[in-house]
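FAQ

Q: What does a record look like?
A: Structure on top, sequence underneath. For example:
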Protein backbone atom coordinates (compact mmCIF):
# COMPACT_ATOMS: atom_id res chain seq x y z
CA UNK A 1 0.00 0.00 0.00
CA UNK A 2 2.81 2.41 0.86
CA UNK A 3 4.54 1.88 -2.49
CA UNK A 4 1.24 2.41 -4.33
CA UNK A 5 0.48 5.59 -2.40
CA UNK A 6 3.93 7.07 -3.04
CA UNK A 7 3.83 6.12 -6.73
CA UNK A 8 0.54 8.01 -7.04
CA UNK A 9 1.72 11.17 -5.28
CA UNK A 10 5.11 11.10 -7.04
CA UNK A 11 3.47 10.97 -10.49
CA UNK A 12 4.58 14.12 -12.37
CA UNK A 13 1.07 14.45 -13.83
CA UNK A 14 -0.36 15.03 -10.35
CA UNK A 15 -1.11 18.70 -9.91
CA UNK A 16 -2.72 18.62 -6.47
CA UNK A 17 -3.77 16.23 -3.72
CA UNK A 18 -7.32 16.44 -2.39
CA UNK A 19 -6.77 16.34 1.36
CA UNK A 20 -10.52 16.01 1.90
CA UNK A 21 -10.75 12.60 0.25
CA UNK A 22 -11.28 9.76 2.68
CA UNK A 23 -8.72 7.68 0.77
CA UNK A 24 -6.07 10.38 1.29
CA UNK A 25 -6.89 10.61 4.98
CA UNK A 26 -6.81 6.82 5.29
CA UNK A 27 -3.41 6.66 3.57
CA UNK A 28 -1.96 9.24 5.96
CA UNK A 29 -3.41 7.36 8.93
CA UNK A 30 -1.81 4.16 7.61
CA UNK A 31 1.57 5.90 7.32
CA UNK A 32 1.18 7.03 10.94
CA UNK A 33 0.21 3.54 12.10
CA UNK A 34 3.32 2.14 10.38
CA UNK A 35 5.49 4.65 12.24
CA UNK A 36 6.50 6.50 9.08
CA UNK A 37 5.01 9.84 10.14
CA UNK A 38 3.96 11.22 13.51
CA UNK A 39 0.38 12.10 14.30
CA UNK A 40 1.40 15.75 14.52
CA UNK A 41 2.87 15.55 11.00
CA UNK A 42 -0.27 13.79 9.70
CA UNK A 43 -2.40 16.62 11.06
CA UNK A 44 -0.02 19.21 9.58
CA UNK A 45 -0.32 17.55 6.16
CA UNK A 46 -4.12 17.49 6.40
CA UNK A 47 -4.04 21.19 7.32
CA UNK A 48 -2.00 21.86 4.16
CA UNK A 49 1.18 22.80 5.99
CA UNK A 50 4.21 22.13 3.80
CA UNK A 51 7.42 21.18 5.54
Amino acid sequence: MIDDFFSIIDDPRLTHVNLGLQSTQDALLYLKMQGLISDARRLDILAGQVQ
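Q: Is there anything notable about this one?
A: The chain has a mean pLDDT of 89.
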